[in-house]
Amino acid sequence: MSTDLASKLREGTKHSHTMAENTAFMKCFLKGIVEREPFRKLIANLYLVYSALEEQLQRYSTHPVVSLIYFPILNRKANLEKDLAYYYGENWREQISALEAGKVYVERINEVANTEPALLVAHAYVRYMGDLSGGQSLKKIIRSALDLPENEGTGLHEFEQLPSVEAIRAFKGKYRDALNALPVDDALAEKIIAEANYAFELNRNVVHELEADVKAAIGDHVFDLITRQDLPGSTERSPGNNAIRLVAAE
Ligand code: HEM
Q: Is the CB of 235 under 6 A from ligand 1?
């Protein structure tokens, strides 16, 4: 069965994507402003999110829908553990905590896993395709803004088994093919798209909670200057056609 789910997801979430890019946090990022404290809190919360997501994907690794979109090479948990050891030190586990929005996000992943596991597809899509897309340009911004030593601090965006731009592009093609091959009917496809939009919202809520920290670090005036103008959305264009934004972002 082909539902063209890959294009439907892209189309059906493009407004959510544009809103994610237009959060104050991301606007600051795109201007090269990455403050260490809010950034490491984001990494900590994404660690909790990915831990839940990857545990649930593993739990459903023989499920007729979830199994087809489960690619362990995407797993982020181990890389995030390394990032946390870098940003917080070896006792990072005692130092990190969930933001309110982080807790809601984790609970939602566990809830859909328990009630309608096929919706895990939406959560996997939003995070992993994001990490493989805009995440790759964010990685360069983070490395230069925080002046990171080689091999430290951006494990979230490192895919050891996809070591080049071409390998990432090819894998994204494979991921879209897998989405298109899922045995889901139109009604379930619609639910997955709705859940993906909610996953974007959950991501926005996490970064919103960190904005006060960014503002405190850079001051109200600079914060307002940077965040008052909206940006065009990267997924409003056709897949792969991201030349303009990526150049602008680098
Ligand atoms: C400033 C921040 C961001 C930038 C610059 C950005 C940029 C991009 C670009 C250029 C693409 C298109 C890639 C392609 O066509 O191959 C893309 C795709 C995507 N991004 Fe983002 N992104 C950002 C934030 C986010 C966030 C916060 C999320 C979700 C948490 C996200 C999730 C996605 C997803 C799921 C796709 C795949 C769309 C598809 O082709 O189906 N992005 N992003």
A: yes
